[in-house]
Write a structure and sequence with these properties.
Order of helices and strands: EEEHEEHHEHHEHHEHEHEHEHHHHHH
Helix content: 40-55%
Low-confidence stretches: none
Radius of gyration: 20 Å
Number of strands: 11
Largest sheet: 9 strands, parallel
Strand content: 5-15%
Shape: globular
């Protein structure tokens, strides 16, 4: 699969952009674990053009995580264009690797974003969505891609026609989450419409499917049944960065990868924590690890008290000590996954 000149190989597996999840430490770890491409957390266009420190910091990427997409969102055309120009020059502005791709977020369903017309809120205004996309494409040199949903609600699933219009606006790949905005993350993703977009003879850009990819079997179905060029994994990565290895093993062999030992999971959690502390320090690097730490050791017996200690302490030395305890206490435990 190619996005412009960027070649991601056959059947690539990508890490979805997620707020408060896909920070630099997690992106680096997921690349180490086999993700073919990663994305930043979504960055507000108005924050970038105001030079807000938090927005600028999110734009910094590293060589070891490349290829990486910088994702922006907003609903004001002028702000989106200026933000895209800044993302295009990210290496110059904030250092690091910069962007291989600039991705436009037309998919986030949360009320504070969609409610003001940004993210998947733009599904109610397809003409404006297409106009913003075209303006961004014309303003930057990097390939522009879009991530969106099927539509606003069940009665307005516009993605088949919208995909053509976004392609005509100049994007070089399209990621589709198989839910409407009103579904949020409830129910099951509807891959039939993703498949319809892919088989549309007018479509020639890569189509990336997203939604309910949780293991190798679901990844294989996405490729085999719906013909997508790539897949994107989101919530199933929480505390589970090795899912990319699992998916690729299944795609290559048709068999599930042997489960990681508790010791292997501990080593990954230690690596993740060390990266988070390196790039964010204390206490922020600990706060932002909690979502993952609560998931790394799912299924271990009699683990509630240990988990509570992990997600309440702000002492990094104590966290590393808890991880050592887990490795010793559960050394002989056969993991569930």
């Amino acid at each position: 699969m190619k996005i412009g000149a960027l070649d991601l190989g056959p059947r690539p597996v990508l890490l979805a952009p997620m707020e408060d999840v896909t920070d630099v430490s997690f992106r680096v770890l997921c690349r180490e674990q086999g993700a073919d491409m990663v994305y930043t957390e979504f960055i507000p266009s108005d924050g970038l053009i105001r030079d807000a420190d938090k927005a600028l910091a999110k734009m910094r990427t590293l060589e070891e995580e490349a290829p990486v997409g910088i994702q922006i969102y907003g609903h004001i055309p002028e702000s989106m264009v200026e933000a895209a120009k800044m993302a295009d020059r990210a290496a110059e502005l904030v250092g690091g690797h910069g962007a291989d791709v600039i991705d436009i977020n037309f998919g986030c369903p949360v009320t504070k974003i969609a409610g003001r017309g940004a993210g998947s809120g733009m599904m109610r205004y397809p003409d404006r969505m297409v106009a913003i996309t075209k303006a961004v494409v014309e303003a930057v040199d990097k390939p522009v891609t879009v991530k969106t949903r099927l539509g606003w609600d069940e009665s307005s699933k516009i993605i088949v026609d919208l995909a053509e219009r976004l392609q005509d606006a100049g994007i070089q790949a399209l990621t589709i989450h198989g839910r409407t905005r009103c579904q949020m993350y409830k129910g099951s993703a509807d891959w039939t419409l993703i498949g319809e977009v892919k088989k549309n003879p007018r479509m020639h850009i890569p189509i990336i499917g997203n939604g309910d990819i949780v293991d190798g079997a679901s990844a294989k179905r996405a490729f085999d049944d719906y013909g997508v060029d790539g897949i994107m994994v989101g919530r199933a990565t929480f505390g589970h960065p090795w899912i990319f290895r699992e998916i690729k093993h299944y795609l290559d062999t048709g068999e599930e990868m042997p489960p990681l030992s508790v010791q292997e999971k501990v080593e990954l959690a230690r690596r993740h924590l060390a990266l988070s502390l390196k790039y964010k320090g204390e206490p922020r690097g600990i706060y932002e690890m909690r979502r993952h730490l609560s998931c790394y050791f799912k299924g271990l017996p009699d683990f509630k008290e240990t988990r509570m200690r992990m997600v309440t302490t702000l002492d990094s030395a104590e966290l590393f000590s808890i991880l050592d305890y887990i490795a010793e206490r559960y050394a002989d435990t056969t993991p569930d996954s």
